Amino acid sequence: MIETIVLWCDALNGRAPLRKALRQIAISVGADVALISRTSHSPDGIANVVVANTRPKEIDGSVEVSFAHGLLREYATKARVGSVWSSRTLSDILSDELRSFQSRHRLRELIVVPLSADSKELYFLELHSAKPVDGHQQAALNMLTESLAQTWKNRNAGVFSASLPRNPSAQKVTKRHHEPIISFHNPAGLSRAEYRVCLHLNRGLSLSEVQTELEIGEATLRTHLRNIYAKTNTSGLPQLLYALLSVSPLAGEQRSVG
């Protein structure tokens, strides 16, 4: 635990990579994925995430989306900094989206720890595990979380933003002044298959319905989604849906992409 906290403090002061510290946290408490999310107060706002996976992405896909708002709901802005919230203890109010996400990625439990909150932004530590957290892991969490939250508030400015992935494709979207992803110009440079996936999602189809419509398997759809997330600078399905639905394409501008 001491080693984990020392590495975390080094990362917050810019002396070590933040992802390395997150990976160490995941290992310390037996989690498969650790991430820090930065979100607005609105549950519909876009979240940025810095992620560390302890298992190969090829096994269950990339886990790069925040579910802090989905788990804490109305308590997202009120929860005590350093407190521990578990999807297992809140199982009766879990969203279908989180249940589906956990099923797809073979994950059993999500732990959310509020790190800080101000008038504009919320920060959370989120831990995903393939197995339910046992008593030993819970004890480790209780030892860590207060220290992690207390040191987080003294972090160097810009540590989180500097750790976000840099994506050239995302810059093209930004320069087009948020032109719709599935507009005529196809600003994200989606392939024909990726474009069709976005079209169907924009029309309200579920992932299983998209698979059926395009006659593709789950693994193929996951590959398309990973590529779409990278090209559109989104961190998962909630962000992608927000980006697709927040600005509607102009009538008649949808095209076949080849």
Outline the structure in words.
With 258 residues, the chain is an alpha+beta fold. It folds into two domains: 2-163, 2-Layer Sandwich (Beta-Lactamase), CATH 3.30.450; 168-246, Orthogonal Bundle (Arc Repressor Mutant, subunit A). 45% of the residues lie in helices and 12% in strands. The protein contains twelve helices and five strands. A five-stranded antiparallel beta sheet has the order 2-1-5-4-3. Helix 9 (192-202) packs across helix 10 (207-214). The chain is globular and about 50 Å long.
Percentage of β-strand residues? 5-15%
Characterize the overall form: globular
The main pleated sheet reads as:
5 strands, antiparallel
Q: In the residues, how many domains can be counted?
A: 2
Structural class: alpha+beta
Notable traits:
alpha+beta, Beta-Lactamase, Arc Repressor Mutant, subunit A, 2 domains, 5-stranded antiparallel β-sheet, 12% strand
